Amino acid sequence: MNVCVIGCGYVGLVTGACFSEFGLQVTCADEDAGKIELLRSGEVPIYEPGLEDLVRRGVGSDRLAFTGDSEQAISNALVVFIAVGTPSTREEGTDLSFVEAVAREIGKKIDGYKVIVTKSTVPVGTCKKVRGWIEEELTARDQEVSFSVVSNPEFLREGAAIGDFLRPDRVVVGTEEGDDHALAIMKDLYRPLFLNETPFVFTDLASSELSKYAANAFLATKISFVNELAILCDDVGGDVQGVARAMGLDRRIGSKFLHAGPGFGGSCFPKDTRAAAHFVRSIGRKFEIVEAAMEVNARQLLYAQEKIQDACGGNLAGKTVAMLGLSFKPETDDIREGSALGISRGLLKEGASIRAFDPQAMTAAADALPEITLCEDAYDAAKGADVLVIVTEWNEFRALAMDRLKKALKAPKLVDLRNIYDPETVRRNGLEYWGIGRR
Fold it and tell me: What is the spatial distance between Cα 205 and Cα 352, in angstroms, rounded to a whole number?
């Protein structure tokens, strides 16, 4: 089976590379010529563990190809995935202009039956719009071509995307009513996962589209809930990690996403919660739990900044902050809407200077935060700083040499925004400690 993926961003690239690993013939198309040339050489423009090896293997076996000629890629494929960006906007919730452009391009070029699959995260009703855009272009061409529209949302975690695709918790496929042909093609496409007994959810278009927003909104709410508990623990002298462990051992709740910190960020949770809330408002209702989670998350970022300010004696002006972690989570170079980005801007606004280090996100941070000093490693960042702040829980930050930090720091103070250190152990090593929801 020939597959075409339109869009060589994070989702499109992982999707294309993984389908090629299934043994399918995959062509990924993108209008960025520089990116295409890079990918043809086996180089990947983003950091995702395992992705570069997968791309090189696919290219080397001739199962994976990259092109700027989307017309040829669409023409040769039975299944066409739309995997372009869907940025959020204040006015419309989600910008579907890239999805519309691809749908119209498909409508201008298809000459035989295709299954058109939305892989991008889109609001409910987008698949119907995709059908309408394609039909408009076919009408303009005075052509009648049969095609199917399918919703197949991605559930990829940055830093673990390859495993999430090849060994997923579930695969959701939404089809138009009575479209058994498209359903059979999608089952054939994912046949290797059927053999691995992966759970599949076959449903209608609207339910499939809503499932992605529902999952991310729920997880974001879970994070905001434990962050509210952390503030309560600070107030009453409790330990949020003990509370979270007691909660997580209840199998109805589970331990995942019960880790207090500076709030959720990244390319999915903030965008998807906003989009979900906007969509529900657009139909005359209110997604009150999600709205509350968003408010708590915004407050949590300020609470994290207050921790740093407290460690600096209540005044950040003229202070130097050593910041460890710039990506929104470990194992990615993505800084979009991350806690480090928001905290850095807040600290700079208060007159602090920042020395920072991240294992992968330095290039992105240099563009987004040109005011900060990028350092060689954690100990270099600590040199002369008034406080050391752990923002992202990279593994290499979990066993830092406290004696080296104490010597490098101007003041022996550690603000652990991810609660990865035992407070008493830090204090025994001669550093003051601030955590989130623990003393």
Answer: 50
